[in-house]
Amino acid sequence: MSLRFADPDSPAIPLHVVPEDGLDDWLAGQSAGVAAWVRATGFTGTLARALVVPDASGVVALALAGYGTPATRARGRFHLAACAATLPEGTYRLHGLPHEHAETEALGWLLSHYAYERYRAQSPAKARLIAPEGVDTPRLEIIAAAEALTRDLINTPANDLGPDALEAACTAVASQHGAGISFIRGADLLHRNFPLIHTVGRAASEEPRLIDMRWGDNGPKLTLVGKGVCFDTGGLNLKPASGMGLMKKDMGGAATVLGLAHMIMALGLPVQLRMLIPAVENSVGSDAFRPGDILTARNGLTVEINNTDAEGRLVLADALACAAEDAPDLMISMATLTGAARVALGPDLAPYYTGDAQFATALDAAAARVADPVWRMPFHTPYETMIEPGIADLDNAPSGGMAGSITAALFLRRFTAGLPYAHFDIYGWIPMAAPARPKGGVGMGARALLAALPEVLNL
Protein backbone atom coordinates (compact mmCIF):
# COMPACT_ATOMS: atom_id res chain seq x y z
CA MET A 1 0.00 0.00 0.00
CA SER A 2 1.68 3.19 -1.21
CA LEU A 3 0.04 6.47 -0.28
CA ARG A 4 2.53 8.54 -2.25
CA PHE A 5 2.46 10.26 -5.58
CA ALA A 6 4.47 8.95 -8.49
CA ASP A 7 7.78 10.52 -9.50
CA PRO A 8 6.87 13.56 -11.62
CA ASP A 9 9.58 12.60 -14.12
CA SER A 10 8.11 9.14 -14.68
CA PRO A 11 6.69 8.22 -18.09
CA ALA A 12 2.96 8.71 -17.71
CA ILE A 13 -0.31 7.98 -19.45
CA PRO A 14 -2.30 11.17 -20.13
CA LEU A 15 -5.57 11.14 -18.19
CA HIS A 16 -8.03 13.70 -19.48
CA VAL A 17 -10.72 14.92 -17.10
CA VAL A 18 -13.80 15.51 -19.25
CA PRO A 19 -17.12 16.90 -17.98
CA GLU A 20 -20.31 16.05 -19.82
CA ASP A 21 -20.64 19.48 -21.37
CA GLY A 22 -17.00 19.46 -22.49
CA LEU A 23 -16.90 16.17 -24.37
CA ASP A 24 -17.65 17.54 -27.82
CA ASP A 25 -14.94 20.19 -27.52
CA TRP A 26 -12.45 17.62 -26.32
CA LEU A 27 -13.27 15.21 -29.15
CA ALA A 28 -12.86 18.01 -31.70
CA GLY A 29 -9.20 18.24 -30.78
CA GLN A 30 -8.47 14.51 -31.13
CA SER A 31 -7.58 12.29 -34.06
CA ALA A 32 -10.37 10.62 -35.99
CA GLY A 33 -9.40 7.26 -34.55
CA VAL A 34 -9.52 8.42 -30.92
CA ALA A 35 -12.82 10.20 -31.47
CA ALA A 36 -14.32 7.13 -33.11
CA TRP A 37 -13.18 4.89 -30.24
CA VAL A 38 -14.65 7.18 -27.59
CA ARG A 39 -17.97 7.47 -29.42
CA ALA A 40 -18.12 3.71 -30.03
CA THR A 41 -17.75 2.96 -26.31
CA GLY A 42 -20.65 5.25 -25.41
CA PHE A 43 -18.49 7.43 -23.16
CA THR A 44 -20.35 10.67 -22.39
CA GLY A 45 -18.36 12.15 -19.50
CA THR A 46 -20.59 10.57 -16.85
CA LEU A 47 -19.17 11.25 -13.41
CA ALA A 48 -16.56 8.72 -12.22
CA ARG A 49 -16.61 6.62 -15.41
CA ALA A 50 -13.11 5.84 -16.71
CA LEU A 51 -12.19 4.88 -20.27
CA VAL A 52 -8.85 3.75 -21.71
CA VAL A 53 -7.97 4.42 -25.33
CA PRO A 54 -5.43 2.01 -26.89
CA ASP A 55 -3.00 2.74 -29.67
CA ALA A 56 -2.71 0.59 -32.80
CA SER A 57 -0.70 -2.04 -30.91
CA GLY A 58 -3.23 -2.32 -28.07
CA VAL A 59 -1.15 -0.43 -25.50
CA VAL A 60 -2.98 2.22 -23.46
CA ALA A 61 -2.26 5.53 -25.17
CA LEU A 62 -4.46 7.76 -23.05
CA ALA A 63 -7.42 7.59 -20.69
CA LEU A 64 -10.48 9.64 -19.88
CA ALA A 65 -12.16 10.34 -16.56
CA GLY A 66 -15.77 11.47 -16.70
CA TYR A 67 -16.36 14.54 -14.54
CA GLY A 68 -20.12 14.75 -14.85
CA THR A 69 -21.90 18.02 -14.12
CA PRO A 70 -21.81 20.44 -11.18
CA ALA A 71 -25.06 18.86 -9.96
CA THR A 72 -23.71 15.30 -9.98
CA ARG A 73 -20.38 16.34 -8.46
CA ALA A 74 -22.23 18.04 -5.61
CA ARG A 75 -23.65 14.67 -4.57
CA GLY A 76 -20.29 13.23 -3.53
CA ARG A 77 -16.55 13.81 -3.29
CA PHE A 78 -13.26 12.28 -4.42
CA HIS A 79 -14.70 11.57 -7.87
CA LEU A 80 -11.40 10.71 -9.55
CA ALA A 81 -10.73 8.13 -6.87
CA ALA A 82 -13.56 6.10 -8.38
CA CYS A 83 -11.73 6.23 -11.71
CA ALA A 84 -8.44 5.28 -10.05
CA ALA A 85 -10.10 2.11 -8.77
CA THR A 86 -11.03 0.96 -12.29
CA LEU A 87 -8.07 2.14 -14.38
CA PRO A 88 -5.37 -0.41 -15.23
CA GLU A 89 -2.08 -0.34 -13.36
CA GLY A 90 0.21 2.41 -14.53
CA THR A 91 1.25 6.00 -13.88
CA TYR A 92 -1.11 8.76 -14.95
CA ARG A 93 -0.82 12.51 -15.44
CA LEU A 94 -3.97 14.64 -15.23
CA HIS A 95 -5.10 17.05 -17.91
CA GLY A 96 -8.11 19.33 -17.76
CA LEU A 97 -8.82 19.14 -14.02
CA PRO A 98 -9.98 22.53 -12.69
CA HIS A 99 -7.33 23.95 -10.37
CA GLU A 100 -9.83 24.49 -7.54
CA HIS A 101 -10.47 20.74 -7.41
CA ALA A 102 -6.86 19.60 -7.70
CA GLU A 103 -6.02 19.20 -4.01
CA THR A 104 -9.17 17.29 -3.09
CA GLU A 105 -9.02 14.99 -6.11
CA ALA A 106 -5.31 14.32 -5.61
CA LEU A 107 -5.88 13.38 -1.97
CA GLY A 108 -8.79 11.16 -2.95
CA TRP A 109 -6.54 9.38 -5.46
CA LEU A 110 -3.97 8.70 -2.74
CA LEU A 111 -6.65 7.39 -0.39
CA SER A 112 -7.96 5.05 -3.10
CA HIS A 113 -4.76 3.08 -2.46
CA TYR A 114 -5.68 2.47 1.17
CA ALA A 115 -6.58 -1.07 2.17
CA TYR A 116 -6.71 -2.74 5.56
CA GLU A 117 -4.68 -5.90 5.00
CA ARG A 118 -3.70 -7.11 8.46
CA TYR A 119 -5.76 -10.30 8.15
CA ARG A 120 -6.37 -10.67 4.42
CA ALA A 121 -4.99 -9.25 1.18
CA GLN A 122 -7.27 -6.66 -0.42
CA SER A 123 -7.47 -5.00 -3.84
CA PRO A 124 -6.92 -1.26 -3.61
CA ALA A 125 -6.37 0.89 -6.69
CA LYS A 126 -3.20 0.15 -8.67
CA ALA A 127 -3.19 3.27 -10.85
CA ARG A 128 -0.58 5.77 -9.61
CA LEU A 129 -0.82 9.52 -10.05
CA ILE A 130 1.67 12.28 -10.70
CA ALA A 131 0.56 15.12 -8.43
CA PRO A 132 -1.21 17.94 -10.27
CA GLU A 133 0.84 21.09 -10.74
CA GLY A 134 0.58 23.51 -7.83
CA VAL A 135 -0.46 20.90 -5.28
CA ASP A 136 1.50 20.71 -2.01
CA THR A 137 2.62 17.11 -2.49
CA PRO A 138 4.34 16.53 0.90
CA ARG A 139 1.35 17.96 2.77
CA LEU A 140 -1.13 15.67 1.03
CA GLU A 141 1.08 12.64 1.61
CA ILE A 142 1.24 13.47 5.33
CA ILE A 143 -2.54 13.84 5.47
CA ALA A 144 -3.03 10.53 3.66
CA ALA A 145 -0.63 8.75 6.03
CA ALA A 146 -2.48 10.18 9.04
CA GLU A 147 -5.83 9.07 7.63
CA ALA A 148 -4.43 5.58 7.04
CA LEU A 149 -3.24 5.46 10.66
CA THR A 150 -6.71 6.43 11.89
CA ARG A 151 -8.40 3.86 9.65
CA ASP A 152 -6.02 1.07 10.64
CA LEU A 153 -6.63 1.65 14.34
CA ILE A 154 -10.41 1.74 13.99
CA ASN A 155 -10.46 -1.35 11.78
CA THR A 156 -8.39 -3.45 14.19
CA PRO A 157 -10.57 -5.68 16.40
CA ALA A 158 -10.37 -5.44 20.15
CA ASN A 159 -8.51 -8.73 20.57
CA ASP A 160 -5.56 -7.00 18.85
CA LEU A 161 -6.25 -3.40 19.88
CA GLY A 162 -6.95 -3.00 23.56
CA PRO A 163 -5.57 -0.25 25.80
CA ASP A 164 -2.07 -1.80 25.62
CA ALA A 165 -1.97 -1.68 21.82
CA LEU A 166 -3.49 1.79 21.67
CA GLU A 167 -0.79 2.97 24.05
CA ALA A 168 1.84 1.37 21.79
CA ALA A 169 0.40 3.13 18.72
CA CYS A 170 0.58 6.49 20.50
CA THR A 171 4.12 5.75 21.63
CA ALA A 172 5.16 5.03 18.04
CA VAL A 173 3.76 8.36 16.81
CA ALA A 174 5.38 10.24 19.69
CA SER A 175 8.73 8.61 18.92
CA GLN A 176 8.43 9.48 15.23
CA HIS A 177 8.08 13.18 16.05
CA GLY A 178 10.19 13.49 19.18
CA ALA A 179 7.17 14.16 21.38
CA GLY A 180 7.07 13.46 25.09
CA ILE A 181 4.61 10.82 26.26
CA SER A 182 3.56 9.50 29.66
CA PHE A 183 0.94 7.13 31.05
CA ILE A 184 -1.09 6.74 34.21
CA ARG A 185 -2.37 3.18 34.57
CA GLY A 186 -4.50 1.05 36.85
CA ALA A 187 -4.67 1.96 40.52
CA ASP A 188 -2.41 4.96 39.89
CA LEU A 189 -5.42 6.58 38.23
CA LEU A 190 -7.08 6.70 41.64
CA HIS A 191 -3.95 7.97 43.34
CA ARG A 192 -3.61 10.72 40.68
CA ASN A 193 -7.31 11.64 40.83
CA PHE A 194 -8.75 10.17 37.64
CA PRO A 195 -11.60 8.25 39.30
CA LEU A 196 -13.99 8.06 36.34
CA ILE A 197 -11.40 6.64 33.95
CA HIS A 198 -10.48 4.02 36.54
CA THR A 199 -14.09 3.14 37.33
CA VAL A 200 -15.12 2.61 33.70
CA GLY A 201 -12.13 0.44 32.88
CA ARG A 202 -11.48 -1.48 36.08
CA ALA A 203 -13.45 -4.62 35.10
CA ALA A 204 -11.39 -5.24 31.94
CA SER A 205 -8.43 -7.57 31.57
CA GLU A 206 -6.13 -4.72 30.47
CA GLU A 207 -5.61 -1.81 32.84
CA PRO A 208 -7.39 1.48 32.14
CA ARG A 209 -5.02 4.35 31.52
CA LEU A 210 -4.60 7.98 30.55
CA ILE A 211 -2.20 8.57 27.67
CA ASP A 212 -0.62 12.06 27.73
CA MET A 213 1.48 13.26 24.78
CA ARG A 214 3.11 16.70 24.50
CA TRP A 215 4.94 18.35 21.61
CA GLY A 216 6.14 21.87 20.83
CA ASP A 217 7.50 24.64 23.05
CA ASN A 218 6.11 27.76 21.37
CA GLY A 219 2.82 29.12 20.14
CA PRO A 220 -0.75 28.78 21.38
CA LYS A 221 -1.70 25.79 23.51
CA LEU A 222 -3.87 23.26 21.70
CA THR A 223 -5.18 20.20 23.55
CA LEU A 224 -6.83 17.28 21.77
CA VAL A 225 -8.85 14.77 23.79
CA GLY A 226 -9.99 11.50 22.20
CA LYS A 227 -12.32 8.82 23.52
CA GLY A 228 -10.33 5.59 23.66
CA VAL A 229 -12.93 2.96 24.56
CA CYS A 230 -11.33 0.00 22.82
CA PHE A 231 -14.47 -2.09 23.15
CA ASP A 232 -17.81 -1.26 24.67
CA THR A 233 -20.02 -4.10 25.85
CA GLY A 234 -22.31 -1.55 27.51
CA GLY A 235 -21.15 -2.79 30.90
CA LEU A 236 -23.89 -4.09 33.18
CA ASN A 237 -26.40 -2.31 30.92
CA LEU A 238 -25.30 -4.86 28.35
CA LYS A 239 -25.78 -4.00 24.69
CA PRO A 240 -27.72 -6.43 22.48
CA ALA A 241 -25.68 -8.29 19.87
CA SER A 242 -26.79 -5.89 17.17
CA GLY A 243 -25.46 -2.94 19.16
CA MET A 244 -22.17 -4.59 20.06
CA GLY A 245 -21.08 -5.63 16.58
CA LEU A 246 -19.23 -2.42 15.70
CA MET A 247 -17.93 -1.55 19.13
CA LYS A 248 -14.32 -2.11 18.12
CA LYS A 249 -14.71 1.39 16.62
CA ASP A 250 -15.58 3.00 19.95
CA MET A 251 -12.00 4.25 20.14
CA GLY A 252 -12.56 6.19 16.90
CA GLY A 253 -12.18 9.52 18.68
CA ALA A 254 -8.74 8.47 19.95
CA ALA A 255 -7.73 7.24 16.50
CA THR A 256 -8.84 10.51 14.93
CA VAL A 257 -7.04 12.82 17.35
CA LEU A 258 -3.90 10.69 16.99
CA GLY A 259 -4.11 11.10 13.22
CA LEU A 260 -4.64 14.85 13.64
CA ALA A 261 -1.70 15.05 16.05
CA HIS A 262 0.47 13.28 13.46
CA MET A 263 -0.52 15.88 10.83
CA ILE A 264 0.19 18.80 13.17
CA MET A 265 3.62 17.50 14.17
CA ALA A 266 4.69 16.33 10.70
CA LEU A 267 3.72 19.69 9.21
CA GLY A 268 5.43 21.58 12.03
CA LEU A 269 2.52 23.78 13.07
CA PRO A 270 3.73 26.38 15.59
CA VAL A 271 1.63 25.21 18.54
CA GLN A 272 2.11 23.67 21.94
CA LEU A 273 0.26 20.43 21.34
CA ARG A 274 -1.09 18.14 24.01
CA MET A 275 -3.05 14.96 23.33
CA LEU A 276 -4.97 13.14 26.06
CA ILE A 277 -6.53 9.73 25.46
CA PRO A 278 -8.36 7.87 28.23
CA ALA A 279 -7.93 4.27 27.05
CA VAL A 280 -10.27 1.69 28.58
CA GLU A 281 -12.46 -1.28 27.80
CA ASN A 282 -16.01 -1.16 29.18
CA SER A 283 -16.41 -4.75 30.31
CA VAL A 284 -18.68 -6.86 32.48
CA GLY A 285 -17.13 -8.26 35.63
CA SER A 286 -17.57 -8.59 39.37
CA ASP A 287 -16.09 -5.13 39.87
CA ALA A 288 -17.91 -3.40 37.02
CA PHE A 289 -19.58 -0.14 37.95
CA ARG A 290 -23.36 -0.26 38.38
CA PRO A 291 -26.49 1.68 37.44
CA GLY A 292 -27.33 3.92 40.37
CA ASP A 293 -23.72 4.42 41.47
CA ILE A 294 -22.73 8.01 42.17
CA LEU A 295 -19.18 8.87 41.22
CA THR A 296 -17.07 11.93 41.90
CA ALA A 297 -15.11 13.26 38.93
CA ARG A 298 -11.67 14.81 38.93
CA ASN A 299 -13.09 18.34 39.17
CA GLY A 300 -15.32 17.44 42.12
CA LEU A 301 -18.64 17.16 40.30
CA THR A 302 -20.76 14.15 41.26
CA VAL A 303 -22.30 11.98 38.55
CA GLU A 304 -25.23 9.60 38.91
CA ILE A 305 -24.85 6.53 36.68
CA ASN A 306 -28.20 5.85 35.07
CA ASN A 307 -26.71 3.76 32.26
CA THR A 308 -23.30 2.11 32.25
CA ASP A 309 -23.42 2.23 28.43
CA ALA A 310 -22.94 6.01 28.58
CA GLU A 311 -19.34 5.52 29.62
CA GLY A 312 -17.54 7.59 26.99
CA ARG A 313 -18.55 10.90 28.52
CA LEU A 314 -17.28 9.67 31.89
CA VAL A 315 -13.73 8.95 30.76
CA LEU A 316 -13.68 12.15 28.71
CA ALA A 317 -14.85 14.12 31.75
CA ASP A 318 -11.73 13.32 33.75
CA ALA A 319 -9.49 13.93 30.73
CA LEU A 320 -11.13 17.29 29.97
CA ALA A 321 -10.87 18.37 33.60
CA CYS A 322 -7.17 17.55 33.45
CA ALA A 323 -6.77 19.42 30.18
CA ALA A 324 -8.47 22.51 31.61
CA GLU A 325 -5.98 22.68 34.47
CA ASP A 326 -3.30 23.59 31.90
CA ALA A 327 -5.45 26.52 30.60
CA PRO A 328 -5.03 25.78 26.87
CA ASP A 329 -6.07 28.31 24.25
CA LEU A 330 -8.31 25.69 22.66
CA MET A 331 -9.56 22.25 23.71
CA ILE A 332 -11.07 19.84 21.20
CA SER A 333 -12.65 16.50 22.06
CA MET A 334 -13.53 13.83 19.53
CA ALA A 335 -15.62 10.80 20.35
CA THR A 336 -17.91 8.18 18.92
CA LEU A 337 -20.28 9.29 21.61
CA THR A 338 -23.99 9.00 20.75
CA GLY A 339 -26.35 7.16 18.46
CA ALA A 340 -28.47 10.30 18.49
CA ALA A 341 -25.87 12.06 16.34
CA ARG A 342 -26.10 9.30 13.74
CA VAL A 343 -29.89 9.50 13.67
CA ALA A 344 -29.70 13.27 13.17
CA LEU A 345 -26.91 13.49 10.59
CA GLY A 346 -26.11 10.01 9.29
CA PRO A 347 -22.67 8.42 8.95
CA ASP A 348 -21.00 10.90 6.58
CA LEU A 349 -21.45 14.22 8.38
CA ALA A 350 -19.55 15.05 11.57
CA PRO A 351 -21.57 17.11 14.08
CA TYR A 352 -19.62 19.49 16.25
CA TYR A 353 -20.37 21.84 19.13
CA THR A 354 -18.80 25.17 19.92
CA GLY A 355 -19.81 28.39 21.58
CA ASP A 356 -17.38 30.38 19.42
CA ALA A 357 -18.94 31.81 16.24
CA GLN A 358 -15.52 32.69 14.80
CA PHE A 359 -14.34 29.11 15.26
CA ALA A 360 -17.49 27.82 13.58
CA THR A 361 -17.13 30.16 10.61
CA ALA A 362 -13.50 29.19 10.08
CA LEU A 363 -14.21 25.48 10.47
CA ASP A 364 -17.21 25.46 8.13
CA ALA A 365 -15.23 27.25 5.42
CA ALA A 366 -12.26 24.91 5.84
CA ALA A 367 -14.48 21.82 5.78
CA ALA A 368 -16.01 22.88 2.46
CA ARG A 369 -12.57 23.67 1.04
CA VAL A 370 -11.04 20.27 1.88
CA ALA A 371 -14.16 18.11 1.39
CA ASP A 372 -14.38 17.01 5.03
CA PRO A 373 -18.00 17.84 5.88
CA VAL A 374 -19.05 18.97 9.35
CA TRP A 375 -22.24 20.45 10.79
CA ARG A 376 -22.56 22.77 13.77
CA MET A 377 -24.90 21.67 16.55
CA PRO A 378 -26.05 23.85 19.48
CA PHE A 379 -24.84 23.95 23.05
CA HIS A 380 -28.50 24.58 23.94
CA THR A 381 -28.23 25.87 27.50
CA PRO A 382 -31.94 25.37 28.40
CA TYR A 383 -31.29 21.62 28.15
CA GLU A 384 -28.86 21.82 31.09
CA THR A 385 -31.71 20.82 33.40
CA MET A 386 -31.95 17.50 31.54
CA ILE A 387 -28.52 16.44 32.82
CA GLU A 388 -29.19 17.42 36.44
CA PRO A 389 -30.78 14.47 38.27
CA GLY A 390 -31.18 16.14 41.67
CA ILE A 391 -29.43 13.47 43.71
CA ALA A 392 -26.07 14.36 42.14
CA ASP A 393 -24.64 17.24 40.13
CA LEU A 394 -24.96 15.40 36.82
CA ASP A 395 -26.76 12.50 35.16
CA ASN A 396 -24.71 10.47 32.69
CA ALA A 397 -27.78 9.25 30.76
CA PRO A 398 -30.91 11.43 30.98
CA SER A 399 -34.16 9.54 30.54
CA GLY A 400 -36.54 10.25 27.68
CA GLY A 401 -34.12 9.84 24.79
CA MET A 402 -34.49 13.41 23.52
CA ALA A 403 -31.56 15.57 22.35
CA GLY A 404 -29.09 12.82 23.22
CA SER A 405 -26.13 14.30 21.38
CA ILE A 406 -26.76 17.79 22.76
CA THR A 407 -27.08 16.63 26.36
CA ALA A 408 -23.86 14.61 26.01
CA ALA A 409 -22.07 17.70 24.74
CA LEU A 410 -23.48 19.79 27.58
CA PHE A 411 -22.27 17.15 30.03
CA LEU A 412 -18.73 17.39 28.64
CA ARG A 413 -18.79 21.18 28.71
CA ARG A 414 -19.19 21.05 32.51
CA PHE A 415 -15.59 19.81 32.71
CA THR A 416 -13.90 22.49 30.58
CA ALA A 417 -13.78 25.30 33.20
CA GLY A 418 -15.28 27.75 30.70
CA LEU A 419 -12.24 27.60 28.39
CA PRO A 420 -12.51 27.70 24.56
CA TYR A 421 -13.83 24.29 23.62
CA ALA A 422 -15.22 22.32 20.69
CA HIS A 423 -16.63 18.80 20.75
CA PHE A 424 -17.04 16.43 17.78
CA ASP A 425 -19.56 13.58 18.04
CA ILE A 426 -18.20 11.48 15.17
CA TYR A 427 -19.18 8.08 13.78
CA GLY A 428 -15.78 6.94 12.51
CA TRP A 429 -17.16 4.34 10.12
CA ILE A 430 -18.20 4.03 6.48
CA PRO A 431 -21.07 1.50 6.29
CA MET A 432 -21.03 1.35 2.46
CA ALA A 433 -17.93 1.76 0.30
CA ALA A 434 -17.52 5.12 -1.43
CA PRO A 435 -14.74 6.64 -3.57
CA ALA A 436 -11.49 6.77 -1.54
CA ARG A 437 -13.35 5.34 1.46
CA PRO A 438 -13.70 1.56 1.64
CA LYS A 439 -16.20 0.15 4.09
CA GLY A 440 -14.73 0.40 7.56
CA GLY A 441 -12.98 2.89 9.78
CA VAL A 442 -12.57 6.49 8.66
CA GLY A 443 -11.39 9.81 10.04
CA MET A 444 -13.96 12.59 10.36
CA GLY A 445 -13.32 16.27 10.96
CA ALA A 446 -9.54 16.03 11.33
CA ARG A 447 -8.71 17.49 7.89
CA ALA A 448 -11.21 20.29 8.39
CA LEU A 449 -9.65 21.12 11.75
CA LEU A 450 -6.14 21.06 10.30
CA ALA A 451 -7.19 23.53 7.62
CA ALA A 452 -8.99 25.79 10.11
CA LEU A 453 -6.36 25.91 12.88
CA PRO A 454 -4.16 28.63 11.33
CA GLU A 455 -7.11 31.04 11.37
CA VAL A 456 -8.59 29.85 14.65
CA LEU A 457 -5.29 30.11 16.54
CA ASN A 458 -3.82 33.04 14.56
CA LEU A 459 -0.82 30.99 13.49
UniProtKB/TrEMBL annotation:
The keyword Hydrolase appears for this protein: yes
Pfam family, one: Peptidase_M17
Highest taxon in the source lineage: Bacteria
Molecular function as annotated in GO: manganese ion binding; metalloaminopeptidase activity
GO biological process, alphabetically ordered: proteolysis
Gene Ontology CC terms, in alphabetical order: cytoplasm
Domain (Cytosol aminopeptidase) ranges: 307-314
Statement: the UniProt record of this protein carries the keyword Hydrolase: yes
Alphabetically ordered keywords of this record: Aminopeptidase, Hydrolase, Manganese, Protease
Similarity remark: Belongs to the peptidase M17 family.
Protein name in UniProt: Leucyl aminopeptidase
Organism field: Roseovarius azorensis
